[in-house]
Amino acid sequence: MYFSLVNKYIEPEFRKLVADKILDSALEEFKPQNKPCIDTSEFDFDNFLQITSKDRNKSSEKDLSNSIRELIKVKDMELAGVNVKDKLATVYTKTRELLNK
């Protein structure tokens, strides 16, 4: 999807905007009490972040990547029936804030 919307001639700010919109949409699947449309293991955030890393600050990319990993872990716990509602809400909010930096 990303490469159908951008190419090497697009300004870096626009590439980052497109990447952030795609990530934002994917993160919607991880909202508390939301059942993702596909298995959480099928979301390839690491690969996507690696592809889009040249348009992102290195430290914020690392923080975002770590937060997404934690979000996936906590979401998997919620889907398994563990009561992690507050933790999931906290991690979800933190991840969204990092994305919007």
Describe the structure.
The chain has 101 residues and is an all-alpha fold. It contains five helices and no strands. The protein has helices at 2-5, 12-28, 45-51, 58-79, 85-99. α2 runs antiparallel to α5. The longest helix has 22 residues, at 58-79. 13% of the residues are buried.
* Helix and strand composition category: mainly alpha
Overall geometry comes to elongated
Binned strand content? under 5%
Helix content: 55-70%
Largest sheet: none
Distance between the termini: 23 Å
Q: How confident is the prediction overall: mean pLDDT?
A: 91
Instruction: Enumerate the spans where pLDDT stays under 50 for 5 or more consecutive residues.
Output: none
How many helix segments?
A: 5
The number of E-state strands comes to 0
Structural Rg: 14 Å
The run of helices and strands is: HHHHH
Task: Offer a few descriptive terms.
101 residues; mainly alpha; 5 helices; 64% helix
Secondary structure layout:
Elements: H1 2-5, H2 12-28, H3 45-51, H4 58-79, H5 85-99
Outline:
With 101 residues, the protein is an all-alpha fold. It is 64% helix and 0% strand.
